[in-house]
Write a structure and sequence with these properties.
- A hairpin with a 2-residue loop joins strand 8 and strand 9.
- Helix content is 39%, strand content 21%.
- The protein is of the alpha+beta class.
- It is elongated, with a radius of gyration of 50 Å.
- Helix 1 packs antiparallel against helix 2.
- It folds into 2 domains: 73 residues; 249 residues, phage-related protein like fold (Alpha-Beta Complex), CATH 3.90.1690.
- InterPro entries: Phage_capsid (IPR024455), Phage_capsid-like_C (IPR054612).
Length: 416
């Protein structure tokens, strides 16, 4: 019988008791019993309602668990397989139970079965990133998108020299080798003949090559654009190579370097101080060049630093502030100067040392010519070393440099 039916029966029974002619005392006792049953009936009804609600929730939870049953079953199956594998592993020379009782094994098993919530704080501490076997192999690192590179010091000699571009294999240059003279004569005296003499100099640009091999794997798999990196490397290599050649080249299938030219060396100014460049040397050097040229100093950064530190020499020479030799530019349009003349830093120039040609001074736009041949060659060779999986990039250009007017350039030679 349903609870509501029992309640209805109690109500009917109470009505019959109230209408019957029974002893009042018995009627009262019977009403008390009936009231008790009514209270119990209400409690039963409430309990049934709660049971119905819990049954619906249990049904919903059961359906959800059934959906996850396959996944949970796969995880448990995988854990069982791992346990079996560990049990069969004899490489460590330990019995199966020796490994299965370790804290690492328990931590991993609990995590596989119950997730993060099933692992104690002590067990979590055993899964770490600073140990490869304890979870470090599961972490990844981030690649810096920028390649850190050392500075390549390129001599800016091209900025002060004369630059010519040709389209043929070579170029002939005409140079006046002697200066004509004018003489005085008397009223009937004969005039002396004088004429300029000339010579031709043939200048041939030489091939400057940059070649680098790289594996196909590097080209395909590197996180950087390696072809672009090779192009940048070639630019630096060409710039450094030609600047170095204009300073110290020997002229044999390469530019003539200003400090290697025999004529300039023979005409160099000898310094006063052994193995050093002095303030007086720098001043005397300016007097070696004819008036009319637009000269600049050429020296390396170490010699410049040495000159800037010679304050006592400057004071002895007459400047109380000790700063007259090197002067900073007043603004962006006015460059720094040495003894009133501009300078460039060319780090291929020699350091201060005995018999070193440490400083050059001259009008390089008139005394030195750089010849560039138009064109640039790039070859991507995939065949020569195809068996090794290597691609060879070969880049080439043609240029050279030559001294065309020796009197426009002077060298300072440190004393022995």
């Amino acid at each position: 019988m349903e609870p509501h039916e029992i309640g209805a029966a109690f109500e009917e029974l109470k009505k019959e008791v109230a209408s019957s002619r029974m002893d009042p005392e018995k009627v009262e006792r019977l009403n008390v019993v009936l009231d008790g049953w009514e209270t119990k009936s209400a409690e039963v009804t409430a309990a049934n309602s709660e049971i119905t609600k819990q049954s619906l929730e249990l049904k919903s939870l059961t359906e959800e668990l059934e959906k996850k049953g396959v996944e949970n079953g796969e995880i448990n199956k995988r854990v069982d397989e791992l346990e079996a594998t560990f049990a069969r592993n004899k490489n460590a020379g330990l019995p199966p139970e020796a490994f299965s009782t370790t804290e690492e094994y328990k931590a991993m098993t609990d995590w596989c079965r119950e997730g993060t919530e099933g692992i104690s704080m002590e067990q979590k501490a055993l899964l770490r990133t600073d140990s490869a076997v304890d979870g470090g192999v599961l972490t990844t690192s981030e690649m810096d998108p920028v390649i850190t590179k050392k500075i390549t010091e390129i001599d800016p000699f091209r900025s002060v020299a004369r630059v010519r571009t040709i389209s043929n294999k070579s170029m002939e240059m005409s140079i006046r080798s002697t200066i004509p003279t004018a003489t005085y004569e008397g009223e009937t005296g004969s005039a002396a003949e004088s004429a300029s003499t000339y010579e031709n100099v043939t200048v041939t640009p030489y091939r400057q090559t940059f070649q680098t091999p790289i594996t196909k794997d590097m080209l395909m798999d590197s996180v950087f654009n390696m072809e672009a990196e090779i192009t940048l490397d070639s630019s630096e290599a060409f710039g450094f190579g030609e600047g170095n050649g204009f300073i110290v080249g020997n002229g044999v299938k390469q530019p003539v370097g200003i400090v290697q030219d025999a004529t300039l060396q023979a005409d160099a100014l000898a310094g006063d101080t052994s193995a050093l460049v002095s303030v007086s040397d720098m001043i005397k050097l300016t007097g070696e060049l004819k008036t009319g040229y637009n000269p600049v100093y050429v020296l390396n950064r170490r010699v410049l630093a040495s000159l800037r530190g010679k304050r006592e020499d400057a004071i002895t020479a007459g400047d109380e502030q000790g700063a007259f030799l090197w002067q900073p530019g007043m603004n962006g349009a006015t460059p720094n100067t040495i003894n009133g003349f501009p300078y460039i830093i060319a780090n291929s120039m020699p350091d201060e040392a005995a018999n070193a040609y440490a400083v050059a001074f001259g009008d390089f736009a008139r005394g030195y010519t750089i010849i560039d041949r138009t064109g640039f060659s790039i070859i991507r060779d995939e065949f020569t070393r195809a068996g090794d999986g290597i691609v060879i990039f070969t880049m080439a250009r043609w240029n050279t440099g030559i001294i065309v007017l020796h009197e426009a350039i002077k060298l300072l030679k440190c004393a022995a």
